[in-house]
Amino acid sequence: MIEYGLIGEKLGHSFSAEIHRLLGDYQYQLIELDKNELDIFLTGKDFKAVNVTIPYKKAVIPYLDEISDQAKAIGAVNCVKNHKGRLIGHNTDFDGLGALLDHSGVRVKDKKVLILGTGGTSDTAAAVCSHRGAASIIKVSRTPGQKDNRVMTVSYDSAVCEHSDAEIIINTTPCGMYPDIFGQAADIRSFKKLRSVIDVIYNPLRSSLVMQAEKAGLKTEGGLYMLASQAAAAADFFFSSEEYKDKTDAVYRKIYNQKSNIVLIGMPSCGKTTVGKLIADKTGRTFIDTDMLIKEKAGTSISRIFSDHGEAFFRDMETETIKNVSALSGAVIATGGGAVLREENITHLKMNGIVFFLDKDPGSLTPTADRPKALTREEIMRRYRERYNIYMASSDHKVDNNKTAEEAAARILEVLK
C-alpha cells in the first residue's frame, strides 16, 4: 500500500518528495499516472493520502465521497485523504498562494489582475484575488471565452490590446517549467502599469518570466514558497494536525538553498575551480567547470579555439554551455573569466543560481597560455579594470579570495546558511 505521495502526469520537475521528507517522518513518493491509470488508482483506494497536480486537480473530483468547502469554492482538489475507504478532497493551494503573495509583499486589493492559464491553479488564484479584494480579475487563455459567471477569459492578444493597464500578473501555466525552462508565458513589456509578477513555477527557482520582471524592476517571486506552504497545509490535512504549518519558512529556506546552484564568477586564475571543488566536496554537490565543458566539446584548448575560430565563436560556445547547465539544480558552477560579458549568460545562471564574485588582487593573478585574454600581467590588469564593475553588477555576493581557498569556500557556505 502506498502511504503518501503526489499524483500527476509528469513529475520529473517536482520537489514535493524532498519537502515532505523535511516536514515529517512519513513515506512520500512521486506517482506518475497517465489518464488511463488515474481511474484504477482512485477506485483501488490503495493509499493513505496523496497530493494532486497537473492535470488531475479537477479530474479527481468525480471519485470523491466528500469535498471540503475550500475545494468546492475553488472547483479543484490538490489533496485526497483515504479515511476508512472514503475519499475526502481538499485544496491547500488557496493557503499556499495566499502565503506566496504575503511572502512576496504583493497586495492585490483594488488592483487589476491578469491570471495566465485556466487550469485548477488559475481557479485558485482567482479565488484568492477575489477574497483579497482585487478590483478586477481576468484570465488569459489560448482558448478564450466566458469560462464561468465569475471570471472572463480573453486571448493573449486581447490581454495586450484591451488590458495593458493590468497592475499584477499571476502565471499559473506550466510554460517555463523544467525541463523547458526558457519558455515564457507572456511578454510583460506591453503592460505599462504593471507593478508585480507572480509565477507559481518553482523549477527553475526563478522562471524566465520572473527574470524578465526582475530586470524591469518589478516586485516578483517564483512559486517555491507556495509549494512549501501548501505542502505543510496538506500534511496537516493528511494527519488532522496543526503542527506542520509552522515549519513552512524553515523548509522553504532549506529547499531553496539545496536547489540553488552556487555560481562562481571572476577573473581568470582567481581560484574559481579550486574554491568550487572545495565547496562541492564539503556539500556533496556536483562540480561543473564551463571552460572544461567547452574544451571537451571542442576537443582542443580555449586558446586554440580563439586562434582558429575567433573570440565570437568561443563566446557562442560559452553561451550555449551556460544555457545547458543553467537547467541544473544544486550544483557548483565555475565560469570562465569573460562569461559576464554577455548579459544573457548571467540571466540564465541566475534562474537557478546564486552568483558569487570571487575577487582576488589582480597583482596575484597568474597569466597562462590557455587564457588568451590574459596572457600577460598587463592584460590581466586591463581585463580587471574593464570587468570589475560588470562582476559586481552580475553577482549577488562578493567574496574575497586573497587568503586561502578554504576560507573563501567557508564564507560562501556561510552565506547560504
Brief write-up:
With 417 residues, the protein is an alpha/beta fold. It contains 16 helices and 18 strands.
Task: Summarize the topology.
Elements: E1 2-8, H1 16-23, E2 28-32, H2 35-44, E3 47-52, E4 66-67, H3 69-74, E5 79-83, E6 86-90, H4 93-104, E7 112-116, H5 120-131, E8 136-140, E9 145-146, E10 152-154, H6 156-162, E11 168-171, E12 196-199, H7 208-215, E13 219-221, H8 224-238, H9 248-259, E14 261-265, H10 272-283, E15 286-289, H11 290-298, H12 302-309, H13 311-325, E16 331-334, H14 343-351, E17 353-359, H15 377-394, E18 397-400, H16 405-416
Parallel strand pairs: 1-2, 1-3, 4-6, 7-8, 7-11, 8-10, 11-12, 12-13, 14-16, 14-17, 15-16, 17-18
Antiparallel strand pairs: 3-5, 5-6, 9-10
Helix pairs in contact: 1-8, 1-9, 4-5, 4-8, 8-9, 10-16, 11-13, 12-13, 13-14
Rounded average pLDDT: 94
Strand-residue fraction? 15-25%
**Spatial strand arrangement across the major sheet:** 9-10-8-7-11-12-13
Tally of individual helices: 16
- Our measurement of the CA-to-CA distance between the termini, rounded to an integer number of angstroms, reads 38 Å
Q: From the helix content, strand content and strand pairing, which structural class follows?
A: alpha/beta
In terms of per-residue confidence, which ranges show pLDDT below 50 for 5 or more consecutive residues?
A: none
Q: Report the helical percentage.
A: 40-55%
* Global Rg: 24 Å
Q: Sheet bearing the most strands, described?
A: 7 strands, mixed
Could you give the count of β-strands? 18
Outline:
globular
